[in-house]
Amino acid sequence: MKKIISGFIVLSLIFLSGCGINNYEFRHVVAAIEDDKFLAWPANNGIWQWGDEILVGFTRGEYTVRSGHNIAGVEESWFTRSLDGGETWHMFKPDDFMDDDNIKWVPDKKRFLEQPLNFEHEGFAMRVFATGYHGNDDPEGGFYYSYDRGSTWQGPWYLGDINNHAELRGKEITARTDYIVTGEKELYLFISANYQNPRNNRIACIRTEDGGMSFEFVSWITPEEPYFNPIMSSTVRISENTFVLAHRNRYFGERDNIRNSIEAYISQDLGQTWRSPGPVKHFESGSNPPALLQLKDGRLVCIYGDRHNLVMAGKFSDDNGKSWGEEFIINKNLIGVSDFGYPRLLQRKDGKLVAIYYWASEDNLQQHIAATIWKP
Q: Is this structure's pTM higher than 0.90?
């Protein structure tokens, strides 16, 4: 298998896994891999889709066996792209993008937009950055944008003056990339923030109606609870006024009472108010962020890494996120580590799903970016 060509990768091994409990046939491919490099965390970086063209972000660093994650050195933000619905991939890093040694910003580098963005531009993509995770260190938060499907990026830009809003003043922004375009100049962004305590995040909804020139605070989604750390949301819009959001919830209380989970929230008034119908998944140990998607047939699907059982898995909802069905297994051929997951998810024009996550297998023992394709 070819892993590196002129610093990049061409595709990858393709093989068949066993069928899951719902008799799905899963095909696994390698989406990004490089000798002596640790590639991980798509959920921290984002996913974008234009028909069967897919762009996924990930973090790249030196592969070093150590306590925690096997990564060392500068943690760079890279991409891998597929033009055929996830069958083949090419990894790359564009110029002038997230390239300041883990994004420790010079104060005068980040700017305010001088003219509104067109969120409905055919090639539009937004990458949000903040603090508290790999390759990102800016407690004010900000974003880059692209008009050419992620080949080149403009930024960094402020999130308007949102840090001075009464609800966010004095807080660190810890957002990943989770947004929904609702108009040419209107976009909803789902962020997390804390009082400089990484174990006490809350998730919020903010909005711009002027193409990113300014942002307004809409609502808190999760309550402020001691010992619980809601973070890393994935949100879909299922009707004109309804959002469904899933997020990772970590518990930092007594270690003999682990209550890590993936929680769901629903808003029926464009983010003004939210309610939780209950968890999607409880984890016996560890935790992992979700990837949430509405299928063409109207069902919701939520996928995640289960680090206790060492599987990539998921569940479907037939009632818009109010309840979740039996778990199905996407991939269970993990080898040697419990450091994996952080998925993103989309559906191709032919109806097949493409899940992207980081993984280690018998053929590729170091962490790399994997993709699994199947028909739901």
A: yes
